[in-house]
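A quick aside before the break. I want you to see a complete sequence-to-structure record at least once, exactly as it would be stored in a machine-readable document. Don't worry about memorizing anything.
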Amino acid sequence: MTPRLQLFITLLLHFEAGISGRLIYLHHRAGDDVVLPVDVDSSHYQCSGVEWIHYKYRYKKDIVLNGTIVKRSPGADRMSLSSNCSLIINNITAEDAGRYTCTTRYTYTHVYLNVLTVSPSPPDVDPGRDGDVTLRCSLMKDYYLDPCEQNSMIWVDETGSVLLGEGDGFVSGGQNNCVSDLMVKHQRRSKRRFTCRVVEGDRVEIDAEYTLDFTAETGVRTIILYHRVGDDVALQNNVDLSSSTCSNVEWIYSRDTSSVSHVFGSGGAEKTWPGAGRMDRKCSLIISNITAGDAGLYESRLRDKYNTVVYLGVLTISPSPPDVDPGRDGDVTLRCSLMRYSGLGLCEQNSIIWVDETGSVLLGEGDGFLSGGQNNCVSDLMVKHQRRSKRRFTCRVVEGDRVEIDAEYTLDFTAGTGVRTIILYHRVGDDVALQNNVDLSSSTCSNVEWIYSRDTSSVSHVFGSGGAEKTWPGAGRMDRKCSLIISNITAGDAGLYESRLRDKYNTVVYLSVLTISPSPPDVDPGRDGNVTLRCSLVRDRYFGPCEQNSIIWVDETGSVLLGEGDGFVSGGQNNCVSDLMVKHQRRSKRRFTCQVVEGDRVEIDAEYTLDFTDYTGLIIGWVVRGLMVVLVIIATFLIIYWMKVKRNNPRNQTDVQLPMQQYVNRDEDGDDDDDVVNYENDEGLPASVRSTDQ
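That is the input. The structure line, written in tokens, reads:
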């Protein structure tokens, strides 16, 4: 019985028994993790009634019995069941290919797993030493399925070109059933990538890549360098100088696999080489101010034995065409090119990317740009003209998550013939004079207009011949030289100011305003504890984001405040905003300064003083002290008054001496008697001489 007839009978028996099912075809590469799906109601069966069987050639192997992986089955340690009873196989190999059948009481599922492999033949070949290499592409599949169609397995190179017959560096071995061979010729110091594809019509079912590295060689050090145009480069040497000197060392330069140039020998630099270099005392090759023409392969050898291989890649950015004038010509196309040794093959797709000032990757079309995509090792970015703006774009060469090299390009659209450009920094509350470059020899300020723009999408007419526009939130006036005077500026006054005379621009002023405020604005440091200070630089939006670390905080001593320190925590810088959290410090008064810096120069700074003194407690203390003094005075007065009253009360004077009264006795004849009698109390006096008021 043939395999196909056996399969047909199996399906027919299932059909007659009323068992429903389906067929699934999967294509995967060796090393993939695979899920073989199945339709099972796990809530009813809980996989206990599920069986998985693997058919390979004419043999079958039980993989799952009664919902449990059979431990003795090949590859059991890489297999498991999912919650819905699907079979999971990790890190598949060619031996896992074949038909898998899952059966339950009422359903069945046939899954045909096809596995694609690419390997050198023989497997242990060393392309760096053994020369030519044969790559074998094999599609392993179920024995019951038909042989592979002729030309259903093809080879392509890095460019996507189909490799047929014999060509540059390869010989196709053709296809035999489900196996296709490609013989790759040894290519000195090169790295090639080849892809085997399984196709059906115009559809690619599966593909797999293989990279051949011909750069390897025993005892040879390989170095890959990336640099920008204009850099000074040192190509380090791995030569052993214990028994020799640099006079015996040679450096060989190759731009591609077909050209070789003798760079340095015992006599120094070759005159035919366009570069300029020298060897240092360690025999390293020093090249100053490199250009794109210096990119390529450099090999060092001592007495015809190679010891060091250096691949130098050079990154360039330039406007296209090179003489474009962004201030006059409008849109600009930036071209980023990575020049490198041709033997390394094509650059990976999406390995060269563009980012703007914020670090956002620029793909497709967006605000002010149009990506031209990547073609081999070249990526274009068309930047739309943005009136009176300055933009910075960065080209990056990446491998995975790692940036190998990047380069920046700044487009300045602010340029204009005869136009004076002024950049001003001020603090909130300042009075500002925007100077004018107008020629008043043949005109007056009545013909001058000032135009205000917060960004490229908004334009406000500030001053014309009739004076200030009512719609503008600011308040200003023109002086006799047509300069614009703005008093008590706010953050809302930041932006672009342009002066023109009869529709011809003569002055462009970029006004940036620095603010410092506590956050939230109504915080009370004396009562609320910690305070966050926010420093903001408001400016024309097309200056782009502020450079990182261009807004810094310093304390009273001038020390820069970074991270966390004594009484503060830095919140870092986000675009043009920098926060500083100041911890509450009892009975203290602190001064903090926000500085906007460019290099070593401070463009503008502003101070903020935090007073943590709690005046409420002080006031209450002084009030209490004052009340106590008043109470003491009142108490003292009352005591004195009480003592005085007590002293003047007769009832309380038992021991008080009354004043002496004198009485003179007279004779009956009226003469004075010589006897004088003194009385201390008039109660003892005769009645005739007592006080009349008694």
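Two observations worth writing down. The two ends are 165 Å apart (CA to CA). The chain has a mean pLDDT of 80. We'll return to this after the break.
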